[in-house]
UniProtKB/TrEMBL annotation:
Top-level taxonomic group: Bacteria
EC number of the protein: 2.5.1.54
Organism: Candidatus Synechococcus calcipolaris G9
Protein name, as recorded: 3-deoxy-7-phosphoheptulonate synthase
Gene3D superfamilies with a match to the protein in the record: Aldolase class I, Phospho-2-dehydro-3-deoxyheptonate aldolase, domain 1
Location of the DAHP synthase ferredoxin-like domain: 1-67
Length: 352
């Protein structure tokens, strides 16, 4: 349920109503929008009468039920106000969200050694990316496949961050590694295979770094939003959803089916920012550029693209990785698409 306050409601009145809702056994969350303040209510609201709440104050404009099973992440919970995730990087604060330029995240599937990660980071930076994404702990289908270098790879990510100023995104697989990952990462990735690892979701929800939640390969949209709800319910509102392809019936020509139609659907259901990963989404470098452009046309807030200095020798996901030259070429092409929807960094700078 949400309480929409009239514009100009005194702060003390919002506080008074929030306290009263706590007395009713509910958890109020204040959401300050551009024009209005909304009090989101979580708890046993089924039996409550919206009219009875409205009678509490002449400053209450409306009391509305959130009909979806996901509450905090639903678009209704913020009365249609999109949320944004602000990420501090050495190069400055980057915002990911509907009202901001499209953020570019790129890097190798796994951090293999110092030379490759620094070289990739420099090329990502030069091409205009804001984040370096590289895996230290890798979720691999086979226990015999390269599992990532773990802690030593975190040090290499820290070195790449220092060398380029890019923000770092890396995956957590085991809650026991969370603290050391959070020391290096600006955003913590929860991968597709852990999307419904509820104890891990609670742990990332109880820490402060923003979380990138990838869609499980067989997750419905509701499964995914309920997983995000776990993170918000645990106290962390900074969640970005990443579409990375789902399993359908063809595995011969594509690794996954990139569900681009999920972008407008998510837009209607949630206020959370959206990222698209066409690399895992297709599994093949040749298909990445067209899907990246299509994701921009469909309204994504960010892109994640795998880039490796020598894809043929990559220890994981080589076939879907672009070379730095290909990535450079792609970002030049993406700029045209980004500008056409008025969401490319240079445009934002020029206009501000
Ligand atoms: C990755 O980002 O490298 C990765 C393993 O992705 P996903 O969890 O989407 O498979
Ligand atoms: Mn990968």
């Amino acid at each position: 349920m949400i309480i929409v306050m009239k514009s100009g409601t005194p702060e003390m009145e919002v506080e008074r109503i929030s306290r009263e809702m706590m007395d009713w056994g509910l958890t109020p969350e204040k959401i300050i929008g551009k024009h209005k303040v909304v009090i989101g209510l979580v708890g046993e609201t089924a039996e409550l009468d919206p009219l009875q709440i409205k009678e509490n104050s002449p400053w209450i404009e409306q009391v509305l039920r959130v009909e979806q099973p996901f509450k905090r992440v639903s678009r209704e919970f913020r009365h249609n106000e999109p949320s944004e995730v602000a990420i501090s990087t050495p190069n400055g604060r980057v915002y990911i969200g509907e009202a901001h330029p499209i953020a570019i995240v790129a890097g190798p599937c796994s951090v293999e050694n110092e030379a490759m990660i620094i070289e990739t980071a420099r090329r990502v930076k030069a091409a205009g990316g804001q984040f370096l994404r590289g895996g230290a702990y890798k979720p691999r289908t086979s226990p015999y496949a390269f599992q990532g270098h773990g802690e030593s790879a975190l040090e290499l990510l820290a070195a790449a961050r220092a060398a380029t100023g890019l923000g770092i995104i890396t995956e957590v697989m085991d809650a026991a590694d969370l603290d050391k990952i959070a020391e290096v990462a600006d955003v913590i990735q929860v991968g597709a295979r852990n999307m419904q690892n509820f104890s891990l979701l609670k742990r990332v929800g109880a820490q402060e770094k923003p979380v990138l939640l990838k869609r499980g390969m067989a997750a419905t949209i509701e499964d995914w939003l309920m997983a995000a709800e776990y993170i918000l319910a645990a106290g962390n509102p900074n969640v970005i959803l990443c579409e990375r392809g789902i399993r359908t019936f063809d595995r011969q020509y594509t690794r996954n089916t990139l569900d681009l139609s999920v972008i407008p659907v998510l837009r209607s259901l949630t206020h959370l920012p959206i990222m698209v990963d066409p690399s895992h989404g297709t599994g093949w470098a040749d298909y990445v550029p067209s899907m990246a452009k299509a994701a921009i046309a469909a309204g994504t807030d960010a892109l994640m693209i795998e880039v490796h200095p020598n894809p043929a020798k990559a220890l994981s996901d080589g076939p879907q990785s672009l070379t730095p030259d290909q990535f450079d070429q792609l970002t030049q092409e993406l700029a045209i698409f980004g500008q056409s929807v008025n969401r490319w960094p240079q445009v934002a700078v020029a206009l501000s």
